[in-house]
Structure to design on (199 residues):
């Protein structure tokens, strides 16, 4: 029986823009870590809301705006705090609470809530949300132990052989894969009405 392959432990590094060059390390298993996972880890470690955390590549200044984006090992990012949306709303209400505003009848003073319209033209679904085997949105994604990449559990089962369907490395066909719960959570939270999903 072939020996089991375990994922290597790797690291990425982060520092807060307001704290100079004080670097901290986050360890993970595999070759990549999702932006959403890193934001969650930093927010939990620093006891701050996740919505406050924005990640920027220290070398290229690229802003990592999507939780599904994958970061390579050993990358360094700068953490910037972003203002929470509710704080902006509170400031607006304070301005609107002056005397002139208070004289407006209640029916006129209350702003109407308008639901945002769905865009008529859908945008292409980001590739990080698509299974590399079936090219469809991930369904119960699992991580291959040999290369750390993800695919649908069904796609792995349909391509059962003595080599990985993603990297072609030899593996134990009975070796269990690891469910990618974080990726499943991200995909499950997507509003698919905004994306053009391959059929």
């Amino acid at each position: 029986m072939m020996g089991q392959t375990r994922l290597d432990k790797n690291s990425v590094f982060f520092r807060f823009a307001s704290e100079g060059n004080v670097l901290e390390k986050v360890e993970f298993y595999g070759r990549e870590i999702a932006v959403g996972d890193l934001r969650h880890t930093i927010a939990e470690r620093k006891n701050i809301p996740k919505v406050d955390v924005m990640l920027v590549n220290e070398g290229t200044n690229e802003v990592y705006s999507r939780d599904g984006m994958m970061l390579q090992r050993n990358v360094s990012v700068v953490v910037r705090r972003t203002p929470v949306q509710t704080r902006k709303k509170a400031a607006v209400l304070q301005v609107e609470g002056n005397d002139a505003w208070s004289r407006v009848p209640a029916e006129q003073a209350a702003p109407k809530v308008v639901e945002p319209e769905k865009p008529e033209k859908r945008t292409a679904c980001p590739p990080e949300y698509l299974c590399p085997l079936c090219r469809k949105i991930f369904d119960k994604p699992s991580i291959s132990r040999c290369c750390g990449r993800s695919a649908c559990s069904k796609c792995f089962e349909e391509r059962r052989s003595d080599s990985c369907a993603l990297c072609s490395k030899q593996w134990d066909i009975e070796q269990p894969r690891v469910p990618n719960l974080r990726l499943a959570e991200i995909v499950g939270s997507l509003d698919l009405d905004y994306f053009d999903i391959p059929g």
Remarks:
- The domain at 123-196 is CATH 3.30.40.10 (Herpes Virus-1).
